[in-house]
Specification:
Belongs to the sigma-70 factor family. ECF subfamily. This protein has 188 residues and is mostly helical. It is 77% helix and 2% strand. Helix 2 packs across helix 4 and helix 7 crosses helix 8 (166-185).
């Protein structure tokens, strides 16, 4: 059936039989190559749990893809160890990429500490700028805008408080807001 060397069936011959679906040949091949596969994967992956997982994946792949083995291109053991090395390197790269993704997400999710002093200074500067712009309005515009935006009155309530027609208040508000927008536009 198979040639033997020193009481051992050659891996090349076993792999050819495995390609034909011979389960007994796969058991023999498994016994022959599982140690070298595990050792190679262990040297590349280093983590014992992942080493076992990758070695198992390699041996399963061996059963599924034995038909791709070409004895004319090299020995079965070389081919099997090449499969093992590639799978182990893929696992290391995948783990490294996952770690880098997690680190990027961590950096992206990290918000700089809130700087209360800087926020207060900036708010103070903005209030001062708005105050200066309000001072550029006419007294009537400033009064209407202040009642509406700082005191929270509606246009109708501003008109009632100032005892002015609603249309007059709306005109003052429109003109005042236009001047404010122009003035504050220089702040940006």
């Amino acid at each position: 059936m198979c040639g033997r060397r020193g009481g051992r069936v050659e891996a090349d011959e076993l792999l050819v039989l495995v390609a034909g679906g011979d389960q007994k040949a796969f058991e023999e091949l498994y016994g022959l190559v599982s140690g070298p596969v595990f050792g190679l994967v262990r040297r590349v992956v280093r983590d014992p749990a992942q080493t076992e997982e990758v070695a198992q994946e390699v041996l399963l792949e061996l059963w599924r893809s034995a038909a791709r083995f070409d004895p004319g291109r090299g020995s079965a053991l070389s081919w099997i160890l090449t499969l093992a090395h590639r799978r182990a390197v893929d696992r290391v790269r995948s783990a490294r990429a996952a770690t880098e993704r997690e680190q990027r997400e961590g950096r992206r999710a990290h918000h700089p500490a809130f700087d209360q002093v800087a926020e207060e200074v900036e708010a103070g500067l903005e209030r001062e700028w708005v105050r200066r712009c309000l001072d550029r309005l006419t007294a009537l515009q400033r009064q209407s805008v202040t009642l509406a935006y700082y005191d929270g009155y509606t246009y109708r309530e501003v008109a009632e408080r100032l005892k002015l027609p609603l249309g007059t208040v709306k005109t003052r508000m429109r003109d005042g807001l236009t001047r404010l927008r122009e003035c504050l536009g220089g702040a940006a």
